[in-house]
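Data availability (excerpt). The following record was deposited with the supplementary files.
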Amino acid sequence: MLASQEYDGHVSIHDDSMAQDLGFSGAPIEGPTHFSQFVPLLHGLWGETWFETGCLSAHFRNMVVEGEEVRAFVELAEEGAREAVIGADKADGAEVLRGTASIGPEHPESELERRLASLRPPGVLVILADLRVGQKGAEPELVRMDFDQPLGEMYPFSLTDKLRVITELSPWYTAAGGLGSPWGRPVIPLEMVSVLAQYTSPRAAIAAKGPSIGLFADLEIRMVKGPLFVGQDYRLERQIVALSESRRTESYWVRTSILDPKRDELLASLLLNHAVLKDSYAPYAAEHARLSGTAGS
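Predicted structure:
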């Protein structure tokens, strides 16, 4: 569904030719797509509480291309536990993601909280040289998600389009079935909470140098007073909580708070590791040499 995605005026890694140019076998599906597979499992364990205070926290390990089969699993340490280990694998056993799920209001340490705590300070950052930990979005963003609402170049589809192909469809996501949900309204699917939090992100003016290509390396969606509803207004506030790097990427970790704009009340949050591929930024080597003081040596 992201084959025609554009940001910063160019196609994304979800375009086949772009993905292959960067050394991948094909264009990956979007990571949050996998979150839908866990909802029936976690709802089965924890009931409505999962929709109201659930947290799904995942580190993506391998990309998945359209048509590949993925099996999701949840493992409880003991009966009645409020935390679980979660994972997803391809049919050949390759790991797609690993992480944790839990219910609140008091959550144990999540997968991404552990990862944040273990990050080492990055070296010389090139693509992210203009970003700082603690940096906030340029302005609060007012958002909503209606069924047939256009979501822009970053997400060239609507909620209705997604519901036609979503991996695990719940009647609570639909206009008619949502009226019979415990909350009497249609619920935004967990994977689409990511879209809700991201489709206006260019307005935040938190971005890597470009043109460059990024991907989702880690994602956590946490409900505080959930679920979130179709057709309701929300306010987003963003802040960079960490900068990091690996051999192939530079990463900026952004926490997005989703608030009730009338009550100024936190309803949910999203923590996302935007990993930008060094090879996708043409002047990377030259700028790294200049910034690290090795140019011409």
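Summary of structural features: The chain has one domain: 6-292.
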